[in-house]
Structure formats: C-alpha cells, structure tokens
Amino acid sequence: MTQDRVPEIPESDQPEKLSRKDFLTSQGSKHAMSRFIVFDVETPNRSNSRMSAIGISVVENGRITQDYFSYVNPEQHFDAFNTSLTGIDAGTVSGAPTFAGLWQKIEPLFSSGILVAHNAQFDMGVLKKCLRDYRITWKPSVPYCCTVQMGRLVLPDLPSRSLDALCSYYGIDLDHHKADSDSRAAAEILIRYINAGLRVSDCAKEYFF
C-alpha cells in the first residue's frame, strides 16, 4: 500500500542543505551501481502493525534483477476497508507464512542494499513494528530512500507524486494496492530517477529500529 494510506512526507523531512542541483548530475548512469531493495507492504487493518503481503524488487546497475512476492499471515483481524483496498482477507493468507517465518527468507535481501519504498516512512514503520512484535533483532539502523521525496527533486513541477501520478507520468503499468505491482512500479520509478541523473545513494537517510 502506498499513497492512499498516508500523506506525502512533509517537505521538512527532506535531506537538509541540499538543493535539486546537488542531487542531479549529467552523468547519472555512474550512480546506478548501488543495489536497491525496493519494497511495498499491504496491511490487514488500521493499526498498520502487521503485513498481509509484501512485494520486493531489486534494482542493480539501473535495472530490475529480481522480483519477490509473498502473502503474509498477520495473525490479526482484517478490517473491511483494508480487504476492499487490497483484495486480501483471512482466507487469502490462511496458508501463508507469518512474518517470523517469512523474515528468514527475505532478511538476506533486506540486508543486501539500500531500502527504498514509496512513502517509505509507512512501509519502514510496518517493518519496524513487525520486527518488534515478533521480537526479532536485526540491525540498529539501515539506510533507506523514499521515492516520493526523491520525486520532489527530479520532478519539482509535477502537481502530485502519488504512485498513481508518477506511473501515469512515466507510462508505467500499475495494479495499485497489490504489493508486487506497487514494488515493481516503485522500482521502475527509481530507475527513471537514476536515468534522469539522480544520485540516489546521496538521498539515503538512516532509519532506526
């Protein structure tokens, strides 16, 4: 889930003392060498403390090299709103792993690069709550980037940087509120930023667990 659930990150949360020109370079391709783990989560209810699905797309050298998707048994109830938005209910996840079981599979991916999400504070927050609730110790902090915030640097005149709006602008296919489609779309947007000359690794902030 992305734009419809939370407002865009306030301007005050952008990296300080850096202007658009500080992030852009005419030789953007040389900054595509980092590894980015682009992910999106869906949640079962308004508490936003568990996942019901996760999509992951890995971007390396300016292209998508891997996609991963899984439903997740949140071991919580489903709100009607969330089910209506995502199409996921208790029956959908009845045979899916819990977050604790899934984490054993995806942790190597999450530890292998800079995390990226659209409205990243939301998805990072869900990840943090899941790690906390399942008493899983990971890293004290990790680098992450937000495609909404980066969009303000690359496309300062675009009226909206919602996932829908960015996909429409770039001509990217999107089945919104489906974790695999959302993560893939965010990865495609990230690649467009890289091709525009954005030094993505310079946009990274630390998220503390």
Architecture overview:
This protein is α/β, with parallel strands linked by helices and 209 residues long. The chain has one domain: Nucleotidyltransferase, domain 5, CATH 3.30.420. It is built from seven helices and six strands; from the N terminus they run H-E-E-E-H-H-E-H-E-H-H-H-E. It has a six-stranded mixed beta sheet with strand order 3-2-1-4-5-6, with helices on both faces. Helix 5 packs parallel to helix 7 and helix 6 crosses helix 7. It is globular. It starts with 19 loop residues before the first helix and ends with a strand. The N terminus is likely disordered.
List strands and helices in order, with pairings.
Elements (H helix, E strand, L loop, with lengths): L19 H4 L11 E8 L10 E8 L2 E9 L8 H7 L12 H12 L3 E4 L2 H14 L7 E6 H8 L8 H8 L8 H17 L9 E4 L1
Parallel strand pairs: 1-4, 4-5
Antiparallel strand pairs: 1-2, 2-3, 5-6
Summary, kept brief:
The chain is of the alpha/beta class. It is built from 7 helices and 6 strands; from the N terminus they run αβββααβαβαααβ.
Sheet with the most strands? 6 strands, mixed
The CATH topology label is Nucleotidyltransferase, domain 5
Structural domains: how many: 1
What is the CATH architecture annotation? 2-Layer Sandwich
Termini separation (Å)? 21 Å
* Structural category: alpha/beta
Q: Beta-sheet strand percentage?
A: 15-25%
Number of helices: 7
- How many strands? 6
Mean pLDDT reading: 88
CATH superfamily label? Ribonuclease H-like superfamily/Ribonuclease H
Radius of gyration, in angstroms, nearest whole number: 16 Å
Q: Helical percent range?
A: 25-40%
